Amino acid sequence: MTDIPATPVNPTRPVKSIYSGGAEMRRRNAAEARFRFYGLFAITLSLGVLAIMLWTIFSDGVSAFKQAKLTFPVTLAPEVLDPAGNRDRAEMTKVTTIGYGRVLAGAFRAELEARQISTEGVSDKEIAELISKDAPGVLRAEVLADTALVGTTQVMTVLASGRIDGYLKGRVTRATAERDAQISPAMLDLADRLQDAGILKTGFNLGFLTSPDASDQRPEAAGLGVAIIGSAYMMLLVIVICVPVGVAASIYLEEFAPKNRLTDIIEVNISNLAAVPSIVFGILGLAVFINFAKFPQSSPVVGALVLSLMTLPTIIIASRAAIRAVPPSIRDAALGVGASKMQTVFHHVLPLAAPGILTGTILGLASALGETAPLLLIGMVAFVDNYPAPPVEGFFDPATALPVQVYSWASRSDPAFIERSSGAIIVLLVFLVIMNVTAIILRRKFERRW
Amino acid sequence: MKSLHITASALAIAALSAGAASARDQIQITGSSTVLPYATIVAEAFGENFDFPTPVVEGGGSGAGRKKMCEGVGENTVDIANSSSRISQSDIDLCTQNGVAEVMEVRIGYDGIVFASDVNGQEFAFTPADIYTALGKQVLKDGALVDNPNTSWDQVNAAFQPQDILVFVPGTKHGTREVFDTKVIIAGCEATGAMAAFAAANNGDEDKAEELCMDLRTDGRSVDIDGDYTETLARVDADKNGIGVFGLSFYQNNTDKLRVATMGGVVPSVDSIAKGEYPVSRPLYFYVKKAHLGVIPGLKEYVEFFVSDDMAGPDGPLAAYGLVSDPELAATQAAVAAETPMGPLN
């Protein structure tokens, strides 16, 4: 064995402090500084874009939660509403909303006269147009539900027309009113006087969250009621379908399936399915669930089945990752004290993987909640005015969904629907944030690290 | 395990009730996005005034809607197809092939197509010839057919102020495009003499000449819009030089943003279209599957309600929204009452 010769440190290489640094050091430091800058720039850019997006949505949409309403007493004249005079509901249904519209308009004019509000430059027809076209229908439904109301005087709060609502929100101005066939500057002056008299007021718009959709002529009455119910039904069904199937599939693939060619193919296919464009699932849903299985069109059950197909791969992938993250020592210990494979999985592995599975499921649901494309093909992008029935038969009634409502309002011609559309986006965002926050909280609370 | 049992039984219940719920009690309507707002207005009023549920109305396009109607007879097929152009022979053949023997054709009124630009821009008084000279792929210049050289409106017609040519036309999947092609482009092609030149270049083949007329320039000055009018409006809003093609009702709802152009000296309005003065208009239809009358509750009542004077008449809500009421509405009402199916196309 020879000793390593005591070679001296290369005397030609100068001794340097790492603090002062040479050219190479400076280069490396500069590279790092540049990289930090790129990173910071990327974050600022994405935050900036997000801020612009949120600002546009909120500045357009917040006003959807407020609504102009008119309050005035209405005398429900029996000679118009119940010509036969016997308060028979069947006979009273012959009076259409046109008749009720006249009653409302008459009562409104009478109130203006009684309060001595000048209607200069505004015709009787235009005065009637200040009231939403939705109001007669509401009044008719109320009267038919309680025929004893006929002959009494009721103080009614009805929606103001979309243009008046837009005026109070700053969307309609006198300049635009001059070019607008549906409103005149004189009507806006009248609206000012009505506001001073306390007849016209702006309040919180609960109807936006509870009312069904409305046609193009009455944007002020359009609400998200049917869409929220439809989305809720679909999410419920997606959970019911996806969680058991997804968890069973991932447990089998992770814990029981032999590792062979076949399971490899299945694995690749699941990953590929997760990347398939969602419209493809819509085409599949139309062919299989509606044309072949004869499920009713536009129904939440078909929507849920399609969204389940779309969400399953995401849930399976997340669940498998969660199950894989449980350390083998847990399984070994359980098997070691005599548990069966089944007991090991259900008593130990699954509870420990549950937070991960739950998070994956919630994130999958959140993406399903925001999905429109597949619903287009199964008839859920539609005008649906009736609430679906309570479950279970309600799953088969026509309904829409939140993102669908955003889409269909965005393509309506009346500018008032832009506000509604952005308002619907806000509601959708709130639901998404709630879901994501729940996912984070659950993960924080139950997650275990090894 | 417990949750598995619960979900399994829930699924079983759901599957069982599918049978019970299959009797459909609401009308299903699909088709043209031009007719969609009118159909929703009627559907809403129908739901308010009758003891039937409100019909479900879908958009998606005239052609797609007619195909869907012709898929067959039965509760999981639609009852009514809205259409902004007349049904074609191929649709009728498809219907017959799938057992949809009798179809009722209901004409609900007329719709105008207008050219409109940004509200602060110049006023345009178009003729079909102006539009063709601006948008045709080949135009007549000094007696010869040349690739369209015009880039500014003052080159098209000296009466216009200089402004870059940029027109947003409806895409080919829209029913509106058909009217635009026949009533504006072909008319303009004929008026400028380009049609005759095309025919002469093709040994007098007039069909070929018409086809060549309908070729629009592809250098980005004529832009096909496949979305709906809101997209066209957004494009006009973004590029103030742009001129958009809109439905009359859409324009009437957005008069604060758009300035409408006259066509042949006529201002488009419900009135001028009803009188037949404004040239670019078309009838709107819906098609009812006769086999579903009396099976789907309320279907007949809905159809009758749609064509009633209260709805489709000149003072009804549809006219207020921009539909030009059909002067022969009474005949339509009689045909609907008698459930007359449509005859062969002529």
Automatic annotation (TrEMBL), chain A:
Q: Which family does it belong to?
A: Belongs to the binding-protein-dependent transport system permease family. CysTW subfamily.
Residue stretches spanning the membrane: 35-58, 232-253, 273-295, 301-323, 349-370, 423-442
Which InterPro entries would you find in this protein's record? Answer: DUF3333, MetI-like, MetI-like_sf, Phosphate_PstA
What topology does it adopt in the membrane? Multi-pass membrane protein
Please give the NCBIfam families that the UniProt record associates with this protein.
Answer: 3a0107s02c (TIGR00974)
Source species, please?
Answer: Aliigemmobacter aestuarii
Q: What is this protein called?
A: Phosphate transport system permease protein PstA
Q: Name one Pfam family in it.
A: DUF3333
Name of the gene: pstA
TrEMBL record, chain B:
Source domain of life is Bacteria
Q: Where would one find the signal peptide in this protein?
A: 1-23
Q: What are the UniProt keywords, alphabetically?
A: Signal
PBP domain spans which residues? 18-310
Spell out the InterPro entries in the cross-references. PBP_domain, Phosphate_ABC_transporter
Say yes or no: keyword Signal present. yes
Task: Name the chain's protein.
Answer: Phosphonate ABC transporter substrate-binding protein
Protein species of origin: Aliigemmobacter aestuarii
